[in-house]
Every structure is written in C-alpha cells, then in structure tokens.
Amino acid sequence: MINAVGLRKVYRLKDREVLALDGVDLHVRQGEIYGVVGQSGAGKSTLLRCVNLLERPTAGTVAVDGEDLTSLSGARLRAARRGIGMVHQHFALLSSRTVAANVAFPLEIAGVGRAERRRRVGELLELVGLQEKARAYPAQLSGGQKQRVGIARALASSPKVLLSDEATSALDPATTESILELLRDLNRELGLTILLITHEMDVIKRICDSAAIMEQGVFRESGKVLDLLATPGSLLARSLFPLPPADAPGVVTITYPRQFDEPLMSELTRRFDVDVNVLGGAVETVSGQSVGRLNVGIQGANRAAALAYLKDKGLLVEESTR
C-alpha cells in the first residue's frame, strides 16, 4: 500500500544543510499497522510528511496504492491525497467550529453536498463513539475526545491509508489505551492501512504488525514485529524487554517467540543435569501474542546439549559475547 524507495530529504538553511532522511526504504503492506519509533530528531515526522508529499523529498520515490505521488503536482496530487488521512499530535481542530463541522470540513472542501455531508458525519461520529458531542466545541472536549474528532475528520474522505503523527503522545495513559484500541478497531473493521510514528515502545507493542527503529534519518532495523523479536541482536527486542546485561560467564538470553506451556527450565535440569539460574525476565503481549525473554545462567558438562535442546524447541538463544 505504501512503497517508498531511497527517500532522501535535505533542508537547506542559510549557512548549512541538514540531512533529515538518508536513503530510507519503507514498505507497508495493505491492511497492516506499521510503526516507526525513534527519539526526537530521528526524522520520523519528515518521513511521514514525505509519504503524503506535504514535504517533497530531495530524492527517492513514494507510491501509495500503486500511484507514484512524487510524479504528481497540483490538482492531481491534491486528488491523490484524499486517499490519505492524517491524524495530528495536537489535534489541529478549528476552535470556532462544532465537532460535526470539524469532521465535515474536508467534505466541504471536496464539494460534497450538504445532505451527504450530514449523513457521512453522523456515520463517522458513531464510528468513533462521539454521536452525543456533535454540537459541542473543541474547548468543551477532553484530550481523548479531541483526538477522536481528529480521527473522524481524517476518515471523512474514506481514505485507504491513515497517517498518525504522535497521535497519543499528548494523552494520559488511560486515554492513550482507548485511542490505540480505536485505531486497531478501525484497522480491522475498515481494512485501513495505518502508518504511525511514535517515540513510545509501548505503542509498537500494543498494536503494530510491523515496525522500524529510526535513528539519524535511517532505519536501523525494520520488519514484522514478531520476526524482529526472533532475530539475534534485535534492537527492538532489547528495547521492548530491557533486561539486565547478560555479560557473566555461562549466561544466555532466551526469547520465547510464542506461548510455551512446557516447564523448559525444569526440563533442562532433569534431562541434562545442568544448573539453571534465572537472572531476569519479562513476558509481554506483542502483536496479540505472548512473548518472553529471559537472562539465564546455565552451567554444567552438558551445557551445549541443553542449549541445542532449547533451539530445537524453536527458542532464540543468544550467548554473551563477553
């Protein structure tokens, strides 16, 4: 659904150039939620704005739903953008308009008739759970309600793609949870493809199918979340599971990429006569599946056989390089 190749963006200032994107490739499948995570200044917002060409990349191409946006301009580009919704961090609502009028605004611009606008607005407010707030003004809403209005407005033109620019970073934890649930529900009910940027790993864990870690204008790592967690040396795994360093002799890091009901650590001691010492661990629900990581000290004459047994069970076993 989104296919960006070789994206490069250079901002030219008076006395210098700033490289915001340095050859980024981004591939988002139809119907998935793709998260780009990184610290401030990593290039996330620039990437998002290049996807809908609010920023034109210095080099590279962007195609959405098979159409090369970088080859378009003027009316053709504006028409293509109607298939791409945008949700902003700070809501960007019009304070002088009611909730219903805010949601209707893109439809007015597109020349949709009044009766059809009214029908569509009612449909969208029901979708985001704000039917009773149609006549309210933004100042009368909570932060979560404002973001729901922003989401409804972004969906007004029935886009196939929704871009989310730090949509939950200004919200409290409980409200963040409700907005993430709404995005996942919209993804499932409408088949909506969602590209979101965030600096919160919890957002990646909660709703993303695929993800990329971005630093200094490049992707350090990208792919399906569960595949990355099962990849040796994964940055994403270390970020989602901040365990103590596994740098003592005999210590390994074990990743359970799926739910295991077997008492594997007890089995190691019985079967291979090794000493097992669990030094730290965590279990998280990632992309709807339970994933666990453990730092475990394993000592004994049959240690190699014990590690091979764990690998045969489908676990990722990483030995300390120190």
Q: What would you note in describing this structure?
A:
- The chain is an alpha/beta fold and 322 residues long.
- The chain has two domains: 2-228, P-loop containing nucleotide triphosphate hydrolases (Rossmann fold, 3-Layer(aba) Sandwich), CATH 3.40.50; 241-319, Alpha-Beta Plaits (2-Layer Sandwich).
- Helix content is 34%, strand content 30%.
- It has helices spanning 44-51, 74-81, 99-109, 114-127, 143-154, 173-190, 201-207, 225-229, 235-240, 264-272, 303-312, and strands spanning 2-12, 17-28, 33-37, 59-64, 67-68, 84-87, 161-165, 193-198, 210-215, 218-224, 251-256, 275-286, 289-299, 316-319.
- The strands form three sheets. The chain has a six-stranded mixed β-sheet, with helices on both faces. Strands 2-1-4-5 form a four-stranded antiparallel β-sheet, with helices on one face.
- A hairpin with a 2-residue loop joins strand 12 (275-286) and strand 13.
- Helix 3 (99-109) crosses helix 4 (114-127).
- The relative contact order is 0.13.
- Keywords: Amino-acid transport, ATP-binding, Cell membrane, Membrane, Nucleotide-binding, Translocase, Transport.
Topology:
Layout: E1 2-12, E2 17-28, E3 33-37, H1 44-51, E4 59-64, E5 67-68, H2 74-81, E6 84-87, H3 99-109, H4 114-127, H5 143-154, E7 161-165, H6 173-190, E8 193-198, H7 201-207, E9 210-215, E10 218-224, H8 225-229, H9 235-240, E11 251-256, H10 264-272, E12 275-286, E13 289-299, H11 303-312, E14 316-319
Parallel strand pairs: 3-8, 3-9, 6-7, 7-8
Antiparallel strand pairs: 1-2, 1-4, 4-5, 9-10, 11-13, 11-14, 12-13
